[in-house]
Amino acid sequence: MITNAVLGGIADTVAQTLTAVRQRAVRKGDKDDFLAIEIHELDRRNPFSERDLIPDSKLLPPPFDFERLTRFMSYGFLMAPVQHKWFGFLTRTFPITKTSAMVPALKRMALDQLMFAPVGLACFFTFMTVAEGGGKRAVARKFQDIYIPSLKANYLVWPAVQIINFRVMPVQFQIPFVSTIGIAWTAYLSLTNSAEEAS
């Protein structure tokens, strides 16, 4: 649970950093370097007042959102026992033996992607929306706007990851493996969730 929480926190930190870097690049892209040098020369001759030097807050990258980080860590913490039970169920239902390894791994992956992935994604968006202070209407809007695209993206990434997970990883390392790979996925979800929140 602690590992899952920490990895969720890392993923959201990555997402927030990417957002800040992207916004900084957009701001810098508005200025030509040559023009910036010329303006710097003018600034030395005609200095601005202190009021003029304070930039508009809309032009600055967003401050680091510790509440958002806490939401992601909480979600990872709470989901770890559910994932543990689910992986245990898959292991018991489709045991991998020396003679039969690939077919049970494929069955685990198929069941995981057809049952757990849609429900897990629904839980994620519901949890995040409610934790952000949204109600039923906000949850419904999030489902209308980003649930299906996120589920499609899930199906591009996770089947291959889960085949490796179920075929190669020992049971005790399956959740840490998924959570480690999930840093990029959770960063994607964080960016998707925050983009929807901003819009």
Automatic annotation (TrEMBL):
Membrane topology: Multi-pass membrane protein
The protein, known as: Protein Mpv17
Subcellular location: Membrane
InterPro entries: Mpv17_PMP22
Pfam families assigned to the protein according to its UniProt record, in alphabetical order: Mpv17_PMP22
UniProt KW keywords: Membrane, Transmembrane, Transmembrane helix
Organism: Paraconiothyrium brasiliense
Stated family: Belongs to the peroxisomal membrane protein PXMP2/4 family.
